[in-house]
Amino acid sequence: MAIFDNIVNTSDNFKGYKGNPPTNEEEYNALDCWIDSSVAPTWIDIKSSIEVETIRQNRKAEYPTIQECIHAILDDDLDALQVLRQAVKDKYPKE
User: Which domain holds residue 36?
Assistant: First the structure.
C-alpha cells in the first residue's frame, strides 16, 4: 500500500479512488476521493505528511535492532549504540 493511502485512509471524509496514488498536485486535484471536497486536505499537507512518513519508515528500517540494543546494553556500550542511532538520524533528517 502506498504511503498516500496510509495517510488519507485515516480520514472519515475519504471515500477512496481507483488507480495509482497521485504523485503531484495536478494528479491529486484530479482525484474524486473525498466525500466533502471543501474539507479535503491540500496537496501541500498531503505531501508534507508523505515526507514525514517516508523519513519515519527509512529510520525504522535502519535503526539498530532490538537484539543490537540489548547487546550494547549488556556490553555496557551505550555510546556505540547512540552513534549508530545518530548516524541514521543524520542520514534521514526531519528537516
Answer: 1-53
User: Grid coordinates 471543501 are at which residue?
Assistant: 38
- Contact between 13 and 35 (Cβ < 8 Å): yes
Cell numbers for 23, please give them. Answer: 504523485
Same domain, 40 and 21: yes
> Could you give the CA distance from residue 22 to residue 8 in angstroms, rounded to a whole number?
12
How many residues are recorded in the chain?
A: 95
Q: Do 68 and 84 contact (CB within 8 A), yes or no?
A: yes
Whole-structure pTM value: 0.75
- Tell me the per-residue pLDDT of 30-68, one tens digit each, with 9 for 90 and over: 999 999 999 999 999 999 999 999 999 999 999 988 998
Residues 36 and 75 in one domain: no
Q: Please tell me the total count of domains within the chain.
A: 2
